[in-house]
Design brief:
Helix content: 10-25%
Largest sheet: 10 strands, mixed
CATH architecture of the largest domain: Alpha-Beta Complex
Number of domains: 2
Oligomer: single chain
CATH class of the largest domain: Alpha Beta
Structural class: alpha/beta
CATH topology of the largest domain: Spore Coat Polysaccharide Biosynthesis Protein SpsA, Chain A
């Protein structure tokens, strides 16, 4: 069993206006907040204690986890990077831990592969998830240089010219507590953020035993189309196939599985909803609407006669 630390204080400006009244961490993925979906994948691999680093203004995430004894909320007044978020969580970290972003999902089996490397001999001080990326993505994440499976250098968002390889380091890590010794030495980058990669590089130079594990893919929540893609993935793969909690349904409306509809939703007459549709609470669907591969967020109104595929309504 391990602790997991999840920075979740970012607003998600590229998701605006979806994040106008909620943080990225609380965006819904088939009935659960994004951060809870990330926690599910970590819990499936043995994480049983979670530290969420959150904004003090995020009352929604505080209410959602208020009665969960496995979750501790730690406040970060300003989102100054993952390194800064980890500094806020550090006093509560007791042993080896997983660090994951709140907006990035990987396959449970990929995490299992990292954990298998973690119990190798000699014991690592860190295992970094690695992902092969194209030139356009090299400036979006840390990029590593390897010697065999050992990571010997990591550079934050270098760009194609300065990148030592095509191996990106997405925000999923296993760390020993030795990493915490190097957090205080971080200094703000040109972006004004405390980059975790600086602490990882110090760990490499002073302690060593930092390894990389190649994963096949990850899915980020960055733009509205990502929200649609993640919801469709869970609708198609999840159980139960159909769940309806409706206040009002008009005559001759029908539902094509898989569909997930939350409470206090009204649906007009003659609608066809589905397949692959998630409707969040308090949404209003007009008469004669046809939806396929769609997400309707809370409070949204879909006008009479609308026919839509592959769309997010807010």
């Amino acid at each position: 069993m391990m602790q997991a630390v999840i920075p979740a204080a970012g607003r998600g400006t590229r998701l605006h206006p979806i994040t106008e009244d909620r943080t990225k961490a609380m965006c819904p993925i088939a009935g659960k907040p994004m951060v809870a979906r990330v926690m599910d994948t970590l819990a499936a691999n043995g994480a049983d204690n979670f530290i969420l680093v959150v904004s003090p203004k995020d009352t929604e995430i505080a209410a959602y986890f208020a009665n969960d004894p496995a979750v501790r909320l730690v406040e970060q007044s300003h989102p100054l990077g993952m390194g800064h978020a980890l500094l806020q969580a550090a006093p509560y970290i007791e042993d080896d831990f997983i660090l994951s972003a709140c907006d990035s999902l990987v396959n449970e089996h990929a995490i299992l592969g990292m954990l298998r490397m973690w119990v190798s001999v000699p014991p690592p001080n860190a295992v970094l998830a690695l992902l092969r990326v194209g030139p356009a993505d090299l400036s979006r994440m840390g990029v590593v240089e390897l010697d065999g499976e050992r990571v010997i250098r990591i550079i934050e968002k270098p760009g194609p010219e300065a990148a030592p390889s095509d191996l990106g380091s997405p925000p999923l890590y296993l760390f020993s507590t030795k990493l915490l010794d190097h957090l205080q030495a971080m200094r703000p980058s040109q972006r004004g953020e405390y980059e975790l990669q600086d602490a990882i590089q110090a760990l490499i130079e002073h302690e060593g035993e930092v390894y990389g594990h190649l994963i096949p893919e990850r899915i980020d929540l960055t733009r509205p189309e990502d929200l649609l893609r993640l919801n469709l993935r869970y609708l198609k793969n999840g159980q139960p196939q159909t769940e309806l909690v409706l206040d009002e349904v008009g005559k001759k409306s029908r539902f094509v599985s898989p569909v997930l509809i939350e409470s206090d939703v009204s649906i007009g007459e003659g609608c066809v909803i589905g397949p692959n549709v998630f409707i969040e609470r308090e949404a209003r669907i007009g008469h004669g609407v046809q939806l396929e591969n769609c997400v309707v967020l809370r409070g949204a109104k879909v006008g009479e006669g609308t026919r839509a595929k592959n769309q997010v309504f807010w």
